[in-house]
Specification:
Number of helices: 9
Distance between the termini: 41 Å
Length: 237
Amino acid sequence: MPEPDAQSLAIVSATLNGAAAVAGLAAVATTGDLVCLAVSMQHVVVAAALGLAGFGAVRGDRHFWSLVVGLLLFSLGSGVVMTIGLDPAETAKPATDLWPVFVALAGAGGAHVVLLSMARTAIAQVASAVDAPNATLRLARRHPEIYVATLAAFGGLATVAIAFGALAVSHGSGPIAAKGTGVLLIASVIGTMAALAAVEVKAVLGLANVKTPGDDEDEPVAGGISEARAAKRRTNR
């Protein structure tokens, strides 16, 4: 099986997340719903991160644009969304007809299911190409664009589910606190995405230098680990 087209996956993911962001912001303009605003902000951040990941694949410095920039954008997005949910009682509008919100969220959920399926196919191609059972554990080192796209798909599904739950509780029983809690949970999901990206940044930089079976001594990782090992061998001589 051939190696996956990680750049195309990143671009498709960025496009679908951008479309979900536009649909969500249109629903926010109609209803003023805070939960939909939080989900839309996540889609904006993810679309930017994946677009830059695709850009990095063209330039060659893939790990920086996928993981480091993704970490920064996810952290920023988590902080922005958290501010939205800190005081919803004063900023939220009274409940209105929320059908545009539910339509936008349903479309976003469908897009994330499609992207997750595409990411799973790409991961299977990586595992088959290198013929190693632990290939997916090193996905961020081999194809950081696929890692970020997979992370975004899982995070997107989680936030859509949280949004539906928060809106159902709020619309059914009326407490505005349900929306605030939902927004804060969405912020925590984005923060978790940032933390997972940070773990992979640390691994790529060689700070978590734990070898796994099948690792190559001279396997290039972001242009750094192989050079460091070569320099160490020269020093030992």
